[in-house]
Amino acid sequence: MVLRKQDSFGGYLRMNNHSSFFDYIGYQKYKGENQPIKLELNIKEKVLSEDGTIPAGVFASMLDIVVGSTISSEMGNPTTTVNLNMNFFDLTNKGAYTAFASITYKDEKMITGEGVVVDKMKNIVAKGVGTFKVLSSK
Length: 138
Fold this sequence. Notes:
Elements: E1 3-9, E2 12-15, H1 20-25, E3 27-32, E4 38-42, H2 56-75, E5 79-88, E6 96-106, E7 110-119, E8 124-134
Antiparallel strand pairs: 1-2, 2-3, 3-4, 4-6, 5-8, 6-7, 7-8
């Protein structure tokens, strides 16, 4: 995990491990010292459905990324998703969203975590619980 010191936001540092998918959707991942990983998203019009709502997959990806990143950061090794269950409460476009996650169970090979996506008013719009396999470091 690479942190860029120049991109500091309220005690959080922007994480540099992202992809062209992150760029297309607009995800920004941050990690603060002794703070949980957070994933932010300012909705771009190009990702909206025809009816102006947010596709559930945008929040599903957000939850997968934030829970997996939280677990990977805690364990110091990469992870892969085994199972992810999600609930979507509000898919109307409210502009800016933030996702956080926490670990709820872990053993040597499998870890379960849960994450939430909140809107700018801190209302939960999506929630997910996932099981991840910890991969060996190379």
